[in-house]
Amino acid sequence: MWEIIRANQRRAATLVVLMAALLLLVGYALGEALAPGAGLGGLFVAFVVWVGLTLISYFRGDSIFLALSGARRIEKNDNPQLFNVVEEMTIAAGLPKVPDIYVMDDAAPNAFATGRDAQHAAVAVTAGLLESLNRDELQGVIAHELGHVKNRDVLYMMMVGIMMGAIVLLADVGARVFFFGGGRRRTSSRSEGQGQLVIVVVALVLMILAPIIAQLIYLALSRRREYLADASSALFTRYPEGLASALEKISHSTATLASATRATAPMYIVNPLGATARGLADLTSTHPPISERVRILRSMGGGAALSNYEQAFRSVTGRAGGVIPTSALAGGEHGPAAAPTAPDTSARLERVRQTTDMLWRLNQYIFLTCPCGTKLKVPPAYVGREIACPHCGALHMIQCGAA
Amino acid sequence: MIILLVFLVLVVVVVFWVMGLYNGLVGSRNEVKNSWSQIEVQLKRRHDLIPNLVEIVKGYMGHERGTLEAVTKARQQAVEVTGSVEERAKVENALSQTLRSLFAVAEAYPDLKANQNFLALQEELTSTENKIGFARQYYNDAVLRLNNKIQMFPSNIIAGMFNFQPETFFQVGAPEDRQVPQVKF
After folding, report:
1. Are the beta carbons of B138 and A1 separated by less than 8 Å?
2. Is A145 a catalytic residue?
């Protein structure tokens, strides 16, 4: 059962090695092209850049990422249900520690996991997600995120992402040095003869191609990991429909996540930037099309094991085997409009109220109930001042931490 | 000389192989133990939560003495039971049963359903119930992995040599137990 995960890790390791080789090759070619015989120096520079970036991201990556996303840590009292769901999934996944839980104040439903290993893991969800999903669906999403943690995807994505960054950086620096600072060298290379020219051409081609290759490797890895996390989610919850219906709800949302950038996009459960370039969706997307993910989850035939998912994956993607992916035919990630599974509007209102209350509390708003029954939520700036209830006109003194 | 060398290499390979198999077995056994302790933590938590629930519900459900007493009695049995996994599974399943009927009955009391403390407790107990379920799921997977290793060739030879015993699954009980109880008014 876990063999699939292990095989996937081997594949990821191969890709990491491949990327490292590409990175070092770029460094070597760059050095050799700039000054004959300096190839080893270039290799060394590439290596140092890579190791430096990797160390920073290994030890500080999760906090940098959480800060970039604007997520804030919450305690159990802020949202008991979310905490319980995360605890349940921690047990189901057999993780050693309950991850830290963060909330992003954003209407776009989305979620991500971060942390280099299970001991340092954190999950973050948006307010929009808490508002629109019921308990089963939330469970499916959290299970997907903990699947990333369990499979150590965060670490792999970080490693590969950093290498991609280093390759782009080196290629960029190389191009600048080459075109703007290379006059002196060009005269000397004329006397060196043909050999040097070949190396220069090779270096140029590498500098143009390497970032593209690196990016494609990165994206392929990212998509595969999403499928695997979906499979893990089905396995942990034993209820693929939960995640399927959650993904559907998320895909119907039109809001885009304000804090997401192209660099952080692969970390989220669905692509936070929306489906822009649908024509190239296959090669240049960090995530597989949602409609396809939903269809795979729904054709698992009553089973929830990884093998069921693998079978469903084969049958669903096998059917799509033409040049144009069926998802593109069906209208991309937004898919055909399906009827909501349960018209639970009253429950949704309740969730919206709870979530906004939670956000207000996080922002240190003061909650008080007027004798006339009106519930007042007052910004912290009013502490020490008197306000009148808008309904009955009764005066209230705002004190710090009033109930 | 060469034959001796080949022989030595073979011996080393076999020793490492046996070591790997043995460590795998120990790892699986520890995983079973660890996941069982997870179940126990959650069962204990449920035992601790139930008196609070009974206390709150008592005020609202005067007519449902029988349901409340059944919960209290089932909890007492579950706290006191010591013995095999099978026995414990049986009493704990009975407790789940009575709790489920209590929550089903509570649906008929709108005042109770409006009580914030009751709602919070209900979420806690439902979640604990889920946690027991997920812990059991993980435990059963761990038991399956261990039992497979103990029974499958070649690790069964090592398991036999070091006396590894197969563990018992935590069963959910008979199929009719799993159905939601019918409540009549």
Report:
1. no
2. yes
Q: Is residue B5 part of a domain?
A: no
- Domain extents for chain A? 1-360, 364-403
Cα dihedral A38, A42, A43, A44 in deg (nearest 10): 100
Q: Spot the catalytic one: A145, A248, A292, A333.
A: A145
For A316, how many CA atoms within 13 A lie in the half-sphere containing its CB? 22
Please count the structural domains in chain B. 1
Query: CA of A373 to nearest chain B CA: how many angstroms apart?
Result: 16
- Confidence (pTM): 0.77
C-alpha–C-alpha distance, residues A321 and B137, integer Å? 36
Contact B132, B47 (CB under 8 A): no
CATH number for position B97: 1.20.1440.20
> Residue A374: enclosing H or E segment and its boundaries?
none
**Token pair for A58:** 């290994």
Regions in chain A scoring below 70 on pLDDT: 1-9, 178-193, 260-264, 266, 273-285, 301-307, 318-346, 400-403
Most distant pair of Cα atoms in chain A: their distance: 93
Quote the CA–CA distance of A282 and A387 in Å, as a whole number. Answer: 57
Q: Is B68 within the bounds of a domain?
A: yes
Whether the CB-CB separation of A243 and A227 falls below 8 Å is answered with no
C-alpha span between A233 and A145 (Å, rounded)? 8
B10 lies in a domain?
no
DSSP letter at A111 equals E
- Cβ distance of B137 and A92 shorter than 8 Å: yes
Q: Can you give the residue range of the structural domain that contains B75?
A: 21-178
In a domain? residue B25: yes
Burial of B143 (0-12, 13-18, 19+ CB in 10 A): buried
Q: Is there a contact between A91 and B135 if contact means CB atoms under 8 Å apart?
A: yes
ipTM: 0.77
> CA–CA separation, A48 vs A311, rounded Å?
44
